[in-house]
Design brief:
The complex is a heterodimer of chains A (about 500) and B (about 375). Chain A folds into two domains: about 1-230, Rossmann fold (3-Layer(aba) Sandwich); about 250-485, Rossmann fold (3-Layer(aba) Sandwich), CATH 3.40.50.300. In chain A, about 35% of the residues lie in helices and about 25% in strands. Chain A has helices at about 35-45, 65-70, 90-95, 110-120, 140-150, 170-185, 195-200, 225-230, 290-295, 320-325, 335, 345-350, 365-380, 395-405, 425-440, 450-455, 480-485, and strands spanning about 1-10, 10-15, 25-30, 50-55, 60, 75-80, 155-160, 185-190, 205-210, 210-220, 250-260, 270-275, 275-280, 305-310, 310, 325-330, 355-360, 360, 410-415, 445, 460-465, 470-475. Chain B is mostly helical. The two termini of chain B are about 40 Å apart. Chain B has helices at about 1-20, 30-55, 60-75, 85-110, 115-130, 145-150, 165-180, 185-195, 195-200, 205-230, 245-255, 265-285, 305-345, 345-350, and strands at about 140, 150-155, 160-165, 235, 285-290, 295-300. A two-stranded antiparallel sheet of chain B has the order 1-4. In chain B, strands 2-3 form a two-stranded antiparallel ribbon. Classes of the chains: A alpha/beta (about 500), B mainly alpha (about 375). Chains A and B meet through helix 2 of A and helix 7, helix 8, helix 9 and helix 13 of B.
Amino acid sequence: MSGITKRFPGVIALRGVSLTLNKGEVLALMGENGAGKSTLMKILGGAQPQDEGTIQMDGKPVVIGGVREAKRLGIALIHQELMLAPNLDITANIFLGTEPVGIMAPIPRAAMHEKARALLARVGLERAPTTAVSELTAGQMQMVEIAKALSMNARIIIMDEPTSSLTAGESEHLFEIIRKLRAEGIGIVYISHRMEEVMTLSDRITVLRDGGYVGDVLRAEATHDKIVQMMVGRDLSGAYFPERTGTRGGEPVLEVSNLIVPGTGAGVTFNALKGEILGFAGLVGAGRTELMQTIFGVTPALGGTMLLDGKPFAPRTTRDAIERGVLLAPEDRKRHGLVLPMNIAENTSLPNVESYARFGWLDRVMEKRVAEAEMKRMRTKAFGITQKVVNLSGGNQQKVVLGKWLAMNPRVLILDEPTRGIDVGAKAEIYRHMAQLAAEGITVVMVSSDMEEILGMSDRVVVMHEKRLRGILPREGLTQQKIATLMTGGKGEVAA
Amino acid sequence: MRREGGMSAALFLMCLVLYISNPDFLGGSNSVNTLRQISMLGIFAIGIGFVIITGGIDLSIGSIIGLTGVLIAKISSPGLGGHSLWVGIPVALAVALTIGAVQGLLITRLKLQPFIVTLGGMLAIRGVSQTISEGGTLSLSGSPLLEFANGGYLKVGANALIPYPLVVFFGVIAVATYVLHFTVYGRYVYAIGGNRDAAEYSGINVARVEASTYLVSAGTAGVAGVCYASYIGQMSQQVGIAYELYAIAAAVLGGCSLRGGEGTVLGMVIGAGVMRVIDNGINMFQYHYVDVDKVPRIWRLDQNWTFIIIGGVILVAVILDQSVHLVQQKRRIKAAGALAEAKLAAPEASHVTTTGAAPPPNP
């Protein structure tokens, strides 16, 4: 691809970007959110046309007019949100749109199941092809997507953040498959925010910034800092995690003892102190999100007790928790954190909209004042409080979520994966806000699968594994090794 | 198939109770009439099923049924247009299909919401019927069409055991089963309802398939309209009012989800059966008892309760279905917790087992 330009109303998404992919190569495509990675890949996958620029395959210029044409050329795009029909079986999904017969002809089921079985063997998925996709885990769905790509003899497979919803084991399996495909001569474009993955998996790294091409680096010559610098255009190392000041960890605010979360067996016991950042480490599926949902009253506990400021705390609904100042910024912002078609002001006032009302009449002036104050405090980038949050970047959406809770003076603020899918620059800002909140005496509970984040931000770290609390580690002497041992089920020291 | 199984059992039970309370339920004229009613509802319930499976809705079919009859009467009734039925019926069906095509194109090309487009269609088409019939009634008396609904095969006395609408119904069932459950097209219909984006990115022409379902829906409504015209004989703008709601109810009772992606032809047939048997049962049900003065009496359901009973049945059906679903879900969550516990209890075993498999108990 060379000189690709794409304009959207009001913005230029891509400015003369070039990209080369060799046969049997894993090319990592990196850049902050909004850098143009997804747009570039949508053009290659035929989902959008480019305004300028050319694409060549095997030295011959090609025009990719649509998804079907891209497929015929052997280009398969695997989206971040998996594109499968949950109500159909594996075979139906693999061959969806490429059935070997006409539209009114009967489907040759037996033959297709047979072919699907062979493809599933290639990607190492041990499920019957007649299994409904709704019964698969996220990792297994990813394998079906890859099998689908292979079914049309793809020569180029584009993967957009493929590991964002996978467990560590599933990611490992995915990497094996990617290496196998590379050995078969398939070119792979791998979009990811996770530096570790990129460093172990890719052969070459292409970096985009603000819709422009920054450069190519061979993996052997790449370093973490160098890539980050290319992505953000400035040196971030050092200033990444903020200096923490003030007393950390006063008296206990939230005391959880022997709490039984639905779907798990053993009780969980821990304290969260005033003004501390309590990290929750663990693999995806370790039960951290479920625990937080119980504390927030989404799924009431089956047993155990909680004390908030020494008084009993047993939320049956989220309303109970919110009224006591226990607030949750969920993992999936778009589904649970925000009402996307509403604007910033409306989202900010949503959790306690009654308090903005006089005899049921919504005080828009007050709503506006609060929303503007929070927007200023969070330094949210938007043209104003009337901008719809659906049009904001991931980082700015997260700032709106935080602003909405901060407007309610929280006692305990639970952040589930606060920086998932957020670019490097915005991450640093979120971290600064978290440190600021803790310094103000708010108890911050942070669930994170990002080891750097856990190490960089936490005052103490709670480690969970297989729905159980495995240990609580103090900041002094905290190492990645210690956490990793506990969160993979190993034995380690257990501190109070 | 959970819903289909449950509804079949309910339908069978209902018929049994009705037969015991009043053996006339299965008597010649009543059973044939009920079959005819089921057939006529089933024909367009299957049609709207296509739309519902893609996640859409079609509110216009009741009005299309009415318009079809009005057009046939206007063109072919001996006292009015006087043309052959071979003119009247094809014209009426062509109009029905055109309406379906226009609505389908508005929904898919202009990306208008199906509810709004077909709501507009419902009202506008009803108005067209009213205008053609000049607010009155168009009689089909003297037309050979009247023999269609009442005639049939296997005549026993005055009743044909297999009325022609039932034959049409079987035809629709056969074609719909093939198209929906065996062809690539049917697969696309389910894929669009299951995940529209996935269908789009799989290279399926979503707009065309989706638009075609509105054609199917309007087409079957046209066919049902011919049957109703023949059955009723007097066409006015009142014919077909609220029929779309009966069809939606039949589809939902039979296991369709209004979110799309779910439902079977068998289920829609059973759903239509349930709707019509309830309707008929309210007339037929009787309870013999002897009052305090030793006088034998018969207790019957009040006709005025019809809508209460039908509405109640629909609500009870979906409540039961959802309860079973929730209980199953809870059990799965509990099982998952127990599995995690078992894994921890036998850590050595958990390393060798793959995902989803429970570790073997320790001897």
